[in-house]
Amino acid sequence: MGKPDQMKLSNKLVLISGGSSGIGLSLAKKMAEKGASLLICARRENQLATAKEEISKSFIDDRQFVETVSVDMRSFETVKNTLSPVFDRFGVPDIVVHSAGVVYPAVFEKISNEQFHWMMDTNYFGAVNLFQTVVPKMKERKSGHIVAMGSAASFIGIWGYSAYSGSKYAIRGLCDVLRSELKPYHVQVSIVFPPDTDTPQLAYENQFKPKITREVSGTIKPLSPDFVATKILQGIQQKKYVIMPDRDTKLLYTASNLLGTGIHRVLDYFTLKAFNKYGPDA
Ligand SMILES: NC(=O)C1=CN([C@@H]2O[C@H](COP(=O)(O)OP(=O)(O)OC[C@H]3O[C@@H](n4cnc5c(N)ncnc54)[C@H](OP(=O)(O)O)[C@@H]3O)[C@@H](O)[C@H]2O)C=CC1
Ligand SMILES: CCCCCCCCCCCCCCCC(=O)[C@@H](N)CO
Q1: How many CA atoms lie within 13 A of 230 on its CB side?
Q2: How do beta strands 144-149 and 187-192 pair?
Q3: Closest ligand 1 atom number to CA of residue 47
Q4: Which helix (H) or strand (E) holds 264?
Q5: What is the C-alpha separation between 174 and 127, in angstroms, rounded?
Q6: How far from 98 is each of 9, 24, 136, 169, 171, CA to CA, in Å?
C-alpha cells in the first residue's frame, strides 16, 4: 500500500450528485483516474451525457463504468425511488458526495421566498435526501464515506449570502451530528469548505452578485475546480472530517473558531469599506 494520496480506488463505486458540472465533474474525473466506477446524478440529461463521455476518458482499466441518473435532488421520494433500483443493480456506493448546489446572491429583501426554499431544498435537503437513502445501507454494511459540500459561507456571514449561507451553515450542523452518530459504524463523514471556485455556478452568480459581495469574497482569488477536486480526493483518502482546500480559507476558519462570531467584526472592516465605496444598492 502506498501513501494515502497515491492509493487506488479500484473496485470502488462512487456516487456524485452534481457530478455533471464544476467541482463534482472534476472530482468524478479524478476518481476515474484512480480506478473508481461512477454514478453521476443531476437533472439535465444533455449535461449528464457530455459528462459521462468526459469521465470515461479518464478510466485506467476496463472494469470501470460510469452511469448517469437524471434526478432532482430536492424531492426525497424521487431520490429514493430513483436510486434504490440503481443500488440494487450496481451495489451501494462506497463513497457518496453531495456536490449538487445552487446560489443566488443579493441583499435579503431582494431574494424571494421561493429562492430561499430553492437554495435550502437543493443544498441542504438534497444532502438529507441522499444521505437518508444511503446511510442505513452503509450502517448495515459497516463501511462507507459520505461527503457534503460546504463553503467558506458555512462559517462566516458574507454580505449577499443570507439564503445561501443559511443552507451552507445547515449542512455543517447536519454533518457535525452525522459524524458523531456514524463513527461506531465505521461510516466516514467529510465536509468541504471551498472559497470561490471557477465553475458555471460562479459564472452564474457573478451575473447578479452585489459589488459588496464581490469585493469581500474577492479577498480570496477563485480556485480551479481541479485543484479543489484534488484536495477533496486527498481528504477522503486521509479520512479527514473537515476538508479545507486552500490555506487562506483555512486561516479564516481557524480565526473564526478562535473568535467565534467576533470574526464578523473583522469581516465588517472589509464589508464597510466596500459599502462606503459603492453604496448599499450596488
Ligand atoms: N463554485 C464556487 O464558488 C463554490 C461552490 N461551492 C459548492 O460546491 C458545490 C458544487 O458547485 P459548483 O461545482 O460550483 O456548481 P455547478 O453549477 O458547476 O454544478 C452544480 C451541479 O449541481 C446540479 N444540480 C443543481 N440543482 C440540482 C437539483 N435540484 N437536482 C440535481 N442536481 C442539481 C447541476 O446539474 P443540473 O442543473 O443539470 O441539475 C450541476 O451538475 C455546490 O454545493 C456549491 O454550493 C462551495 C464553495 C464555492
Ligand atoms: C481574517 C479575516 C479576513 C476576512 C476576509 C474575508 C474573505 C472572505 C472570503 C470568502 C470567499 C468565499 C465566498 C463563498 C463562496 C461560495 O460558496 C460561492 N461562490 C458559491 O457559488
Answers
A1: 7
A2: parallel
A3: 38
A4: helix 263-278
A5: 9
A6: 19, 8, 17, 15, 10
d(CA 199, CA 41): 17
Model pLDDT, residue 7: 73
The confidence score (pLDDT) of residue 281 equals 73
Q: Residue 136 in contact with residue 232, Cβ under 8 Å?
A: no
Task: Say yes or no: CB of residue 243 within 6 Å of ligand 1.
Answer: no
Residues of the chain falling short of pLDDT 50: 1-2
Report the 10 Å Cβ neighbour count for 249: 20
Is the ipTM reported for this complex over the cut 0.95? yes
Three-class SS of residue 66?
strand
Contacts of 179 (CB under 8 A, 6+ apart): 189, 241
pLDDT at residue 3, as a whole number: 56
Q: What is the pLDDT of residues 71-102, one digit of tens each?
A: 999 999 999 999 999 999 999 999 999 999 99
Ligand 1 atom 27, closest CA: 100
CA distance 236 to 93: 14
Ligand 1 lined by 199 (C-beta under 6 Å): yes
What number of residues does the chain have? 282
What fold, for 8-277?
Rossmann fold (3.40.50)
